[in-house]
Amino acid sequence: MREVAIVAFGQSTHVRDSAETSEVEMLMPVLHDVLDQTGLAARDIGFTCSGSCDYLAGRAFSFTMALDGVGAWPPISESHVEMDGAWALYEAWVKLLTGEADTALVYAYGKSSPGDLREVLTRQLDPYYVAPLWPDSVALAALQARALIDAKLTDERELAGIAARSRRDAQSNPHAQLRGALPAGEALVAPLRTGDCPPIGDGAAAVVLAAGDTARRLTARPAWIRGLDHRIEAHSLGVRDLTDSPSTRLAAERAGAFERPVDTAELHAPFTSQEVVLRRALGLDATDGTVRINPSGGALAANPVMAAGLIRLGEAAARIHRGDSDRALAHATSGPCLQQNLVAVLEGE
To answer: Which of 92, 318, 326, 335 is the most buried (most CB within 10 A)?
Structure first.
């Protein structure tokens, strides 16, 4: 199989409200950053793919406006997914595997501040039985957390520890929205407190992919994608065991994550309870010291919807670029209670 690597990663500084900045203005510095890292110009990119959500923007085909930040003239080969940018990376990866391009630019962005995010995300639910009840994303995550606690798979003390570790690790991340020690906070939806939940914020991210010798030419230490797979749970929450994530486990197996141990895991867990589910599905122990889990702070430190999953892949790749990691696992999710899950395995040379 053709070798494909992440050769550059960039992201915005994530903020609670970017009302004075449009999507294009938020994206352009990030796009220039990743191109500058590789020395490529827009005309050198063989394929461009983006991830975003029209529900966040409140208008149809909003992604076409973001193309102004890329430059669509002369005409480019371009695609878009109404998903987190991690799935846009998957499409670009397949494009490079087929040999139709040698380089790809992948970007994603989300502005959650203009509306009520908890209500917006109800539109992901089953439209016949669940969505009419308007259960919001935090309430559903609380159901999952309660199921874990009732099954004695975690407790509120462990969840508070996950939140504290994530925010502490985010101190070294200049792009994080929340950094440093924060209190557990007030009860939001029992058993979740505000500290167990991600911040609402705006942000963008981008990566450049390259194949074979092109990747080696563009960066000293490419982050090779050794495996990449994504799976989905049943749409109906009532037929799922919320304490487990079989789709994450299967995606990891197909991506080759269990063939050898990893030293880094960037998990897209917007809620502390979801990290517990993912660690169990992936066989990761946060206490044995052999694997760093979310050294960037993860989604608990910055969670720009539609970009947070791509950021997990980018953060894992950046650690390989710097020589801080040799084999990393990156995970992205979408939908309520870890409904859709993507797992990638990245390695240095």
So the answer is: 92
CB 156 within 8 A of CB 191: yes
Asked if residue 38 lies in contact with residue 206, where contact means CB atoms within 8 angstroms, the answer is no
Q: Choose among 269, 271, 139, 117: nearest CA to 202.
A: 117
300 neighbors 272 (Cβ within 8 angstroms): yes
Q: Tell me if 223 sits within 8 A of 345, measured CB to CB.
A: no
The SS3 of residue 248 is: helix
Kindly list the distances between the CA atom of residue 156 and the CA atoms of 145, 153, 159, 339, in Å, as whole numbers in the listed order.
Answer: 9, 11, 5, 23
Q: Quote the pTM value.
A: 0.95
pLDDT tens sequence across 299-341: 999 999 999 999 999 999 999 999 999 999 999 999 999 999 9
Q: What is the rounded distance in angstroms from the CA atom of residue 315 to the CA atom of residue 130? A: 35
Helices H / strands E in the chain, number of each: 11, 12
Round to whole Å and give the CA distance between 9 and 16. 22
